[in-house]
Amino acid sequence: MTKIIMSGCSGAMGVMISELAEADDEVQIVAGVDVVVNKNLKYPIYENIMDCEIEADVVVDFSNPAVLSDILNYCEERQIGAVLCTTGYTDEQIADIEAASGKFPVLRSANMSLGINVISKLIQDAVKVLGNEGYDIEIVEKHHNRKLDAPSGTALALADAVNEAADNRYHYVYDRSDRSQKRDTDEIGISAVRGGTIVGDHDVIFAGTDEVITFSHRAYSRAVFGKGALAAAKFLCCKPAGKYSMSDVINN
After folding, report:
1. Which of 12, 199, 229, 235 sits at 20 to 30 Å (Cα–Cα) from 219?
2. pLDDT class for 149, splitting at 50, 70, 90?
3. CA 166 to CA 73: how far, in whole Å?
4. pLDDT at residue 110 in the model
5. Is residue 252's pLDDT more than 80?
6. Is 28 exposed, middle or buried (0-12, 13-18, 19+ CB in 10 A)?
7. Rounded CA gap, 53 and 78, in Å?
8. Strand 136-143 vs strand 242-244: parallel, antiparallel, or unpaired?
9. Which of 42, 103, 128, 147 is catalytic?
């Protein structure tokens, strides 16, 4: 059984993952970390992860970039894995994650949905053909009105997947309102929509002459992210130090 410390346990995703774990015989959440104590959760909750002395195999983090340093230090001290699901990291924090992966197993993903990670693979195949034929690429993401970062980490990850498959020839454009000029053929436009209770919508659009091909993913419940996070935790348990991704989980 994989024992998990849930960072951000009182948030919407933390509660969702806790509920999913209750019905999963292969995992157990043994402790939580959050500044808010949710009394409905059935495990001890700590304000700071460094205060947790409970034995665990993996930390799953759905909280805030501000706690990254503590999580990395904790996992290094105890030599356990970290599943990092939080978005909005700075370049310096991403470098810290890279360095940490040389000391213990780290799995970082902007989107834990198995479906979105399959789409990531499909668009890499598509750009190898369509990109060379002059198709313009646009990414549109939609989320609820409480989401803080924009564009979403998933939208950026999809753009990075396209760019990786195209030898990094594309640059990203987030706003065209301050310029009056023709669209550059080597740009990826990334647009963000915020409103209502949208869980997460992502469209990757390949627009060519007389045809448009769109890869779409719609999340109707946070459960898809929670299931992916638990699958990642099971996968990462007892793995050697290294950098892992949801592609590794899918292909396992």
Report:
1. 235
2. confident
3. 36
4. 80
5. no
6. middle
7. 10
8. unpaired
9. 147
The answer to whether 5 and 28 have CB atoms below 8 angstroms apart is: no
Partnered with residue 216 across adjacent β-strands are 203
Annotation marks residue 147 as catalytic: yes
- Kindly report the number of other CB atoms within 10 A of residue 123's CB atom: 21
Q: Which residues of 153-180 are buried (b: 16+ CB within 10 A; e: fewer)?
A: bbbbbbbbbbbebbeeebeeeeeeeeee
Pair 3, 56: CB distance under 8 Å? yes
CB 115 within 8 A of CB 224: yes
Which pLDDT does position 117 carry in this prediction? Answer: 87
What rounded mean pLDDT belongs to the chain? 95
Greatest Cα-to-Cα distance within the chain, rounded to the nearest angstrom: 61
Distance CA 138, CA 25 (A): 42
Reduce the DSSP state of residue 246 to 3 states and report it: helix
- Say which of 143, 217, 227, 234 is annotated catalytic: 143
Q: Is 144 designated active site?
A: no
Instruction: Give the pairing of strands 200-208 and 242-244.
Output: unpaired
- Checking if the pLDDT of 25 tops 90, the result is yes
Query: Which pTM was predicted?
Result: 0.79
Local structure of 225: helix, strand or coil: helix
Helix (H) or strand (E) holding 108: strand 105-108
Determine the Cα–Cα distance for residues 70 and 61; give it in Å rounded to an integer. 11
Residue range 73-90, pLDDT digits in tens = 999 999 999 999 998 899
Q: Report pLDDT digits (tens) over 158-174.
A: 999 999 999 999 999 99
Helix (H) or strand (E) run with residue 202 in it:
strand 200-208
